[in-house]
Write a structure and sequence with these properties.
The protein is mostly beta strands. The protein has two helices and 106 strands. It starts with a helix and ends with a strand. It is a single-pass type I membrane protein.
Length: about 1000
């Protein structure tokens, strides 16, 4: 179906293209670069947008493109300016994913040919200088659209704004896409790795957006206001209307979808592994057919959070394995692992599966593993399954499935609440004047022996239960536990087969007055049906049968009489013929409409002369469903069957329904769905007709269609330099897959995740990589081949020298020069002293003054960076410098008595000294080492004004540099070297 939609969209592109101009863009440009064809493609997307007319299209080849034009003056190029962005133009469509040779849009492969619009300006990989917005859509854009692009590395962390098309664009909004006062369609695109204070991936203000078949992932909040708190949003809608269809919104620490004073629809989408899946603030979108799972709420509402008069309409959605926990923030109270409703919010949830949501932690207060309703909220849940939810902090956990708190007034209609665990209220905790209503609900198999109120815990609350069955729950004290003046009302309920450690397995009352009308409390382990725990506790029973209570006043039946329930262990709560509870209820005690209301099984609530006791109305000859339909998981294109068994089918007709709507031709006791498609997902039940009792209904069974394994985001070709980290990533359409990476056809051991990383990649890591994925249905998918090329690092070869050598005199000027091989086109130099950068010494030479810029024993070196591709930094060997002053016995050379020479230099210690010393009879020869120590001293004669002396230094003198000082009328200093190698 997806391919067909993509084909039709592309066909529309090619049809439109025949009626308007197409402008072509390649990352490197081509030919005349006027954008008239692929062979003359421009390399400037914005320039093509600027010249495009209404109805024109921009076709962009795969590659990476940076915004080079100022967003508030798109005619001006300003490289690496953070206010640069790609700015859309009215009625101009942008299409990516081309190879650069197509003549029809249908020929492109946008899945494997990624066209990236990147905000990574300046230093690559450093977000501090990234563009505030990668793309801006502002003002009336008509039919403008964005199709098949990756939009990444925007950084909306500024505090200022710019004016674009009449709108003030805040630098803190829309790291990926910033939309102001506009209408835009974004299709088949990837928005990832952006950051922002509001709307890390996309920010929409007073706009109408259509977002279809897109992926938003790895978008993060900026710490100024949001950080990783889920308050920034991969998508942030403010005073906007957004249509999100078949999208994947995953792994966003900024949060999934944030709505503030917003509306619209979210349908067919997967919202997974975000910090908060959906957050509605004064917003009421329609949410249909979505999977909201594995999201993480900090403090409250991992799956969906509704606050401040938000009333979204949620239908046929799955909330699975969401949680509310700490993430570095020191909260003590946590609320609603899956769903959080607060401050007058009244959402509706219909045909939803709320499964395995939880809150965990220690020494914390935890409220509502699955659902939390607080502060005058009034949500409605209809035909929902709330199961396997829980709280893990003991003893301060309240409501394993549901916590109704602070004057909230939720309504639960025909809901199944099963297999939940919490310390106070295994399934439900009602507190602080909440007024929850449960109609026709099945509260079954919740709690454990550490739980007070295995099914329900009422604390200062008066909840209402009508036509409900409470069964199979386990507790320390009571299936229903009431305290602090709680006065719940049970009307036409059946409370049976519950067990408790202490007191009654039915109702435990501590203070307050519980009201029991037309109800059956029977067969609960441990004690009577109602246990009064203190002297202030009371109960008022009318027209009810309560085990252990023998009063027959007010129409009650003595608790020693068996109510004759059909088969509690088989979940059959019908009254058998002859039951004393038939026709012995009081119509006046029933609070609904006896003309239209249905009982727990869906039969008429009033069949005979008077209403019956209990949740199920008796009808003579009426069949009993002995086996209810079972929920199914099915593979796409597979086959599955729902079926029921009844005690007597003669004379009765059957009609299967999906979502309350009759399925044509589905009139047998079983219903088989063949060639299962996604649209078959939903809630199924069978309706039996043909009895004077009217129609009656089976329990709901849910069909969940497993999508076949599909790689939705392909790994891309990668070229790296040796020593870099290799990262190949993919995204799949569903969770729970098995993964295996292969290199050049061979399996890579341990590479069994959707992401493959090699730290410090080397040349041997070059090759062809693919990923195979497989699901539990046996469906497999293989990625495209990602070509990885690791290029060798290019290291400069650096040597340095000093024009004065390594031994200089105090105050002497020294020039250090360099010789560099493999330095690249524009090598970067940095001279160092003792390993620390010398300020401003960034040329290929360094001029220094002895004792001012360096001292004795300082080490001078040079680092050189090759700035070409794969260039790295190399550091030369060091020159150890010596600075001598007069205190060492060596003074400035001055040739006042003639010219002297020493040769050969260097030598092994035997030197000849010649020179002119007119008027002198003798001169003194002194030799000093580099430490200024005198190692040789001799007075030698001068013959007729000529010095000619053979100097043989001792073998004990090591190789190294020395100074010869010739003292006569003046002083001459000659530097020489002994080399005994």
């Amino acid at each position: 179906m997806f391919k067909k939609l993509l084909y039709l969209a592309a066909l529309l592109v090619s049809t439109n293209a025949s009626q308007a101009s197409v402008h072509y863009v390649k990352s490197t440009g081509a030919g005349a670069q006027d954008g008239s064809s692929w062979s003359n493609a421009s390399n400037d997307i914005q320039a093509m947008i600027n010249i495009a007319a209404a109805g024109d299209q921009i076709w962009v080849a795969n590659g990476t493109y940076l915004p080079t034009h100022l967003a508030n003056n798109t005619a001006t190029i300003s490289l690496n300016n953070r206010n640069n962005a790609f700015v859309l133009k009215a009625n101009v469509q942008l299409y990516g994913g081309f190879s650069g040779a197509e003549t029809l849009a249908t020929q492109r492969d946008s899945t494997s040919l990624l066209t990236v619009l990147s905000g990574d300006l300046g230093i690559s990989g450093d977000s501090i200088d990234n563009a505030y917005h990668v793309m801006i859509a502002s003002g009336n854009l008509g039919t403008a659209s964005l199709n098949s692009f990756a939009i990444r590395w925007g950084q909306a962390d500024g505090s200022d704004s710019i004016m674009v098309n009449g709108n003030n664009i805040l630098q803190m909004t829309g790291g990926g896409i910033a939309c102001y006062g506009t209408a835009l369609a974004v299709v088949n695109s990837l928005v990832d790795s952006n950051s922002g204070i509001k709307g890390a991936g996309m920010y929409n203000y007073q706009s109408t957006l259509t977002v279809s078949r897109d992926m938003f992932r790895y978008n993060s909040g900026v710490a100024l206001l949001s950080g990783g708190s889920g308050k920034s949003g991969a998508i942030y809608n403010e005073q906007s209307t957004l249509s999100i269809t078949i999208c994947n919104i995953s792994r966003n620490t900024a949060g999934g979808i944030m709505n503030h004073n917003a509306a619209g629809t979210i349908s067919g989408s997967t919202i997974v592994r975000n910090i908060v899946g959906i957050s509605n603030d004064s917003s009421s979108p329609v949410i249909m057919g979505c999977t909201i799972s594995l999201n993480f709420g900090i403090g409250a509402g991992g799956g969906i959070r509704n606050t401040n008069y938000s009333s979204p309409v949620v239908t046929n959605c799955t909330f699975e394995r969401n949680t509310s926990q700490s993430s570095g923030v020191n909260y003590t109270d946590y609320y609603g692992g899956g769903i959080y409703n607060d401050n007058h919010s009244s959402p509706s949830f219909t045909d939803c599966n709320i499964y395995a949501n939880f809150i965990g932690g220690s020494n914390l207060n935890l409220y509502g593993g699955g659902i939390y309703n607080g502060n005058f909220s009034a949500p409605t849940f209809t035909n929902c399954s709330i199961s396997n939810c829980g709280l893990t902090a003991i003893p301060t956990s309240y409501g394993g499935a549901i916590c109704n708190d602070l004057s909230s007034a939720p309504v639960f209609n025909k809901c199944t609440i099963v297999y939940n665990v919490g310390t106070n209220g295994g399934a439900v905790y009602n507190s602080r004047l909440s007024a929850a209503v449960f109609n026709n609900c099945w509260i079954v198999d919740n709690g454990d022996f550490d739980t007070d109120g295995g099914a329900v815990y009422n604390d200062s609350s008066s909840s209402i239960f009508k036509n409900c069955v409470i069964t199979g729950n386990t507790a320390n004290r009571g299936a229903v536990y009431n305290k602090n003046s709680s006065s719940p009302v049970f009307t036409n309920c059946t409370i049976t087969n519950n067990q408790s450690n202490i007191g009654s397995g039915g109702i435990w009352q501590y203070g307050g007055d519980v009201k029991i009308n037309n109800s059956i409390i029977w067969g609960n382990a441990s004690g009577d049906g109602v246990y009064l725990a203190d002297g202030t506790a009371t109960f008022t029973a009318k027209h009810s049968l309560i085990e252990g209570q023998n009063s027959t006043a007010d129409g009650n039946i003595a608790g020693t009489v068996n109510p004759m329930l059909a088969s509690v262990l088989l979940n059959n709560y019908n009254l058998l013929p002859g039951s004393p509870c038939i026709n012995t209820g009081a119509d006046s005690l029933y609070t609904g409409n006896l003309n239209t209301d249905l009982d727990f099984e869906g039969k008429f609530r009033l069949i005979d002369t008077s209403i019956d006791m209990g949740a199920v109305e008796y009808c003579g000859g009426h069949p009993v469903i002995t086996t209810q339909p079972v929920s199914r998981f099915c593979c796409l294109n597979g086959t599955t069957t729902f079926s029921i068994a009844v005690s007597n089918s003669t004379g009765f007709s059957f009609q299967w329904q999906k979502g309350g709507v009759d399925i044509p031709g589905a009139t047998a006791m079983s219903y088989t769905v063949s060639n299962v498609s996604y649209s078959d997902s939903g809630a199924f039940q069978v309706v039996m007709s043909g009895s004077a009792c009217g129609k009656f209904y089976s329990a709901f069974a849910y069909l969940t269609v497993k999508s076949p394994a599909k790689i939705t985001q392909q790994p891309t070709d990668t070229t790296l330099c040796a020593g870099s980290n290799l990262r190949l990533s993919t995204t799949t359409n569903v969770l729970g897959l098995s993964y295996q990476w292969l290199k050049d056809g061979g399996m890579i051991a341990g590479a069994t995740d959707s992401i493959f990383v090699v730290v410090n990649a080397q040349l041997a890591d070059s090759g062809k990589y693919i990923l195979t994925v497989k699901d539990s249905c046996g469906n497999a998918d293989t990625s495209r081949s990602a070509i990885v090329s690791i290029n060798p690092a290019v290291a400069p070869v650096v040597s340095i020298s000093s024009n004065q050598g390594d031994s200089v005199l105090n105050g002497q000027s020294v020039i250090f020069t360099s010789s560099v091989v493999n330095g690249g086109a524009a090598p970067q130099y940095q001279w160092k002293k003792n390993g620390t950068n010398i300020p401003a010494a960034t040329n290929d030479t360094y001029n220094a003054i002895a004792n001012a810029d360096f001292q004795s024993n300082d080490q001078i070196s040079l680092s050189v960076k090759n700035t070409d591709a794969c260039g790295v930094v190399s550091v030369s060997t060091t020159i150890l410098m010596y600075v001598h002053t007069s205190s060492t016995g060596v003074i400035n050379a001055g040739n006042n008595s003639g010219h002297f020479s020493l040769y050969p230099n260097p030598n092994d210690g035997s030197f000849t000294i010649k020179g002119v010393a007119e008027g002198l009879g003798t001169v003194t020869l002194e030799v000093y080492n580099m430490l200024g120590q005198n190692v040789y001293n001799e007075e030698v004669p001068v013959d007729n004004g000529q010095l000619n002396k053979k100097l043989n230094l001792e073998k004990s003198l090591p190789s190294g540099n020395y100074f010869l000082k010739i003292n006569g009328v003046g002083t001459t200093v000659i530097r020489f070297t002994i080399n005994r190698n």
